[in-house]
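Fold Annotation — chain and its backbone
Next Lines — sequence and tokenised fold

***
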Amino acid sequence: MKIYRSGSTADHGETHVELSSPIFSWNKSESCLVVKKPGVKDFTGKSRHNYKVLIDINDLNKIMSLLAETALESPGPMEKYLEPSLKSILQLKAVVSGVKT
């Protein structure tokens, strides 16, 4: 996972940090996906930071909608990319359709 940034007023190009092997978890109380990565080197210096990104359920729905639209437009590549997630996708389908409660 990469996080890019650029200046909002003076754009001097993009810089990024890479969050290799982030830790994913679900926060039940806030209904959000949590992505954590400790000890990430700063964009510009030698300091390190702990990153924590919260993705709420509304944003997750938008991500899933975008993935579905993209899969319909370009099924070949998306089939390959999402094949490892097929079991999870089917489990979500069963829950959302009311088959599994």
The helical segments are 57-73, 75-82, 86-96. The chain has a mean pLDDT of 91. The first strand starts at residue 2 and ends at 5. The chain has one domain: 2-96.
